[in-house]
Structures are given as C-alpha cells and as structure tokens.
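If you are new to this repository, start here. Below is one unmodified record pulled from the training split, so you can see the exact layout before writing a loader.
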Amino acid sequence: MEKYLTAGYYTDADHPAILEFVDRFTANETNLKNKVIALYYAIRDGFRYNPYEVVLKSDQLKASFLLKKTSGYCVEKSNLYAACLRVLGVPSRLGYGKVRNHLGTHKIEEKLRSDILVFHGYTELYLNNKWIKATPVFNEELCEKLGVEALDFDAEQDAVFQRSDKHGNPFMEYLHDYGTFDDLPFDLFVSEMKAHYPHLFVNKITQGPFIFDFEN
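And here is the target side for that same chain:
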C-alpha cells in the first residue's frame, strides 16, 4: 500500500503547489471523508474538461503542472486528484480504460478519426477498507451543455461515468480496462495513442483549436 501513498514522478504529491491546493480546499472540512469529497469537486469543476489540447511531454503531465492551467483532460485531472489524496494520507492509484463516447462532439471525432477514446483516466482511492473509483473529469457546465447529469461523488460508492444522458441515450461505454497504476504509465500511454491515432504523430500541432504535441 505504501506505493499508493508516496509521491511519484507524475503523481507528485510532494510538490508545494499541490500541498497549497489541498490546504485551500480542505482547511474548513472537519473529517477525512469531507476532505476527499471537497477535492473531488474542486478538480471536477475547477478545471474545465478540455480534450482538444493533449501534450505528451513528461514534465507537462505532472499533477502539479495542471495547477498552472484552467483546463485539462481526464488523464491530467485524475492524476491531480490522486496526488491530492496522497497528501491527505489516502492511498490512491490511477486507472485507465478504452471507452466509446456516444455523445462525443463531431469536432473531436473528426480530429481523432474515431469515436473511441484511448486511455480515459480515473482515480481509485482506498477509504473505509475498500477501493472506490472516482472520475473528477467532466465539469458541471460541460455536462449541462451535453444534457448529462454531472457525476457526483459521495466517497462511498463508485463514480465512474454516466451511462446515459437525461433522455436515456447512451453516453459512455467501457470497452477495455488497462488496469491500475501507482504512477502515470507514460510509455504505455504514448504507445496506445500511437496505435489508435497514428495520424496525430505525423506532425505536431501546436496552434489552433486542437493541439497535439509530443516529445521527440
């Protein structure tokens, strides 16, 4: 369990900016469970979900780097949550899946040339003697635009994804589970991206409404 409590290269729970972030959003909470919940909402709604800027560079995938921005995608937001939980002394690990987004916008599907999202990230935390899944990814404002209930979290039951929108239409479907990791598996992440979206690696895209940048 120790590896799920220790800061990693990407899940850099010992970074001063993360320590400050945790203190800011939990200082007024009276118990551990409420602190866990407060951080979930701080990350879910404090950073706009943005799948249109994916940068596969080691230094920019650290949890602390997201604190320099106002938006991020699932891998970034879940990693930040895992780091924050470790500050609280709550064991955390990172989970990833391959999902089909039934309500995905035409814009992102056009860029990816697929409706399948590779390496969709979530967080698992160990609380009250059990592992619980949490996905602090899709902010409430975005969910309202998509006609989907925002994913709430009570620190007792899994909060993985919304199965349908408010009208019962399918929202997200898990196709493959990559398993869980104590730190972001960068090489596996990149290799899966290359396997599913090889066209994105032909040229770096560093400007415009869709950004895809990567290490040489």
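Two things worth knowing about this chain: Strands lie at 48-49, 53-56, 71-72, 92-101, 116-127, 130-134, 172-181, 211-214. The chain has a mean pLDDT of 93.
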